[in-house]
Write a structure and sequence with these properties.
519 residues, alpha/beta, Rossmann fold, 6-stranded mixed beta sheet, binds adenosine-5'-triphosphate, ATP-binding
Length: 519
């Protein structure tokens, strides 16, 4: 039995070090039952480490965990599940070629895939889905589901295991705005049923909209817990970063010059014969930021990959790309050749495309630019020069920990992103391609990355920005193009576009022809 009135979670004096890095220092945290509790903090502040301790992935070096008032040892994730704790990770842990039902029961029951238990499980899954608004077809293969639906499966998996506490790590990073709204409705529903939710996010908007209380971490320490109703974004930002943060982008009006990138009739058919780009015409001028808005999966990824010089294997391309008036090869190119031509590229997925995760930070800062004269001496790569350059970038971008020898995989997500941005922006490219530049990045670093992108524009460079964050598109872009189903649905100026209008274009509806759909 739970002690009446005891908090769902209480952490006392939790400490955890990774070598010299003290990821959690003497952390206390109280999460009352039946509440949504936000955890915020800069990249590398120790949020994921703390939640991984609660979920049994790491053993703390010191400290105590109480669940419902009872001291509880959580040696592994099975123990966490027994204690009623479920976790939804940033990168889902589903088996892609299994059905929803198979994924939900996998590991939850003895003899998991036996028929009788399968039919019982199906009934239970349907009940949970109906009760919490988590509709999803039990027989669909996970690989055929949208990201939002895959996340529902993760939540259903936790509920099926009778989780009373649900931890979500950056759950909206991969969702569309509509999917994110739906998720928060679900979380409020779960809270109202008495469940306890812990939400890690970098988005203060989500903290303000969805949480009851919020705790702030900085550099491994817990610096404060407050009731959400009694605080605001500016105060939270300051607590997180330890200084005032501008929550908007300051930029002078653009002064566009000659076209840097010209696309004419760019088409791409993938190896399965699906037409992903259906004739893209775009111009980007020197000194301007063109933002491409759109729901993920409408061709933005393919566009960036082609421009960046690594189109999907087996794709057929046609059309024309010109960089400063000179034609660029469509296929048969590569990222190094594109970079040498003056195209910098911050890919959408830093882990698979932006970094080599097992390589050190210093090696990664040269990735794609190995041929640069300053990195080579006497026909050999000059490791000392690359290391010195990396140390300089680490200092100027405040990458933490400031250790050039650390493998990319051992940096937190936001610091990994800074390594990629530092490498590409510092090269002063004529055209910078940026995909989701601030995904998983804290607000201090967002401010910094946005400033660097604007500075590049002000130095007369062209920027192509792809982001699923409409706020980011609106804040940074000088012009906005909306992509839907492999086409440009329309172009708008940011100060003339409403989010309703952009939302319509993102859903494939042109408000110019159907004005009744824009409120
Ligand atoms: N397995 C590991 N080995 C070495 N260092 C690690 C490991 N896991 C985390 N760290 C370090 O511990 C610190 C805390 O990382 P953690 O991932 O908990 O931060 P976070 O607050 O979740 O960051 P982010 O918002 O970027 O996800 C960081 O300095 C990170 O580099």
């Amino acid at each position: 039995m739970a002690s009446a009135g005891a908090p769902a979670i209480e952490l006392r004096g939790i400490c955890k070090a990774f070598g010299p890095v003290q990821a959690n220092k003497d952390i206390d945290l109280v999460v009352p039952r039946g509440t949504i509790h936000g955890i915020i903090g800069e990249n590398g502040a120790g949020k994921s480490t703390l939640m991984s301790i609660l979920y049994g992935f790491y053993r703390p070096d010191a400290g105590e965990i109480l669940i419902d008032g009872r001291p509880t040892q959580i040696a592994d994730s099975q123990a966490a599940i027994r204690a009623g704790i479920g976790m939804v990770f940033q990168h889902f842990k589903l088996v892609r070629n299994f059905t929803v039902l198979e994924n939900v029961i996998l590991g939850a029951e003895d003899g998991a895939l036996l028929r009788p238990s399968l039919s019982r499980a199906r009934g239970e899954l349907k009940r949970l889905a109906a009760e919490y608004g988590l509709q999803v077809d039990p027989d669909a293969l996970v690989e055929d589901l949208s990201v939002g639906h895959q996340q529902r499966v993760e939540i259903l998996k936790a509920l099926y295991r009778r989780a009373e506490i649900l931890i979500l790590d950056e759950p909206t990073g991969v969702l569309t705005p509509a999917e994110a709204d739906h998720l928060f409705r679900i979380l409020r529903g779960l809270r109202d049923e008495g469940k306890t939710i812990v939400l890690i996010t970098h988005k203060l908007r989500e903290i303000m909209a969805a949480t009851d209380n919020v705790s702030v971490m900085r550099r491994g320490e817990m610096v404060g817990s407050v009731r959400t109703a009694e605080t605001g974004p500016a105060e939270l930002a300051e607590l997180m970063v330890g200084r005032k943060v501008l929550l908007r982008v300051e930029k002078p009006p653009a002064a566009p010059g000659a076209p840097v990138l010209e696309l004419r009739g760019l088409r791409m058919v993938d190896a399965q014969g699906v037409e992903r780009l259906r004739g893209i015409d775009l111009d980007i001028r020197a000194g301007e930021i063109l933002g491409i808005a759109g729901v993920a999966g409408n061709g933005q990824t393919q566009l960036l990959e082609i421009l960046g010089g690594f189109p999907e294997a087996g794709a057929t391309l046609s059309g024309e790309i010109r960089l400063k008036g000179a034609p660029l090869a469509l296929a048969g190119s590569n990222g190094r050749a594109r970079r040498a031509a003056g195209i910098g590229h911050v890919p959408e997925d830093r882990q698979t495309e932006g970094l080599i995760m097992d390589f050190s930070a210093w090696e990664n800062t040269a990735f794609g630019y190995q041929d640069a004269p300053e990195y080579n001496r006497g026909g050999l790569m000059d490791h000392a020069a690359i290391r010195a350059d990396a140390a300089d970038k680490i200092a100027r971008f405040d990458i933490r920990p400031p250790d050039p020898e650390l493998a990319a995989k051992n940096f937190s997500g936001g610091n990994q992103q800074k390594i990629v941005v530092a490498r590409e922006v510092e090269r002063d490219p004529d055209l910078l391609l940026v995909g989701q530049p601030t995904r998983g990045v804290d607000i201090g670093a967002i401010e910094f990355i946005h400033k660097r992108i604007v500075a590049l524009r002000d130095a007369g460079k062209a920027v192509l920005l792809v982001s699923v964050e409409l706020d980011e598109i609106l804040a940074l872009s000088d012009r906005i193009a909306v992509m839907f189903d492999g086409r440009i649905m329309g172009e708008r100026l940011p100060d003339q576009a409403t989010t309703g209008e952009l939302g319509c274009l993102m859903a494939g509806v042109d408000p110019a022809t159907r004005p009744e759909v824009v409120s």
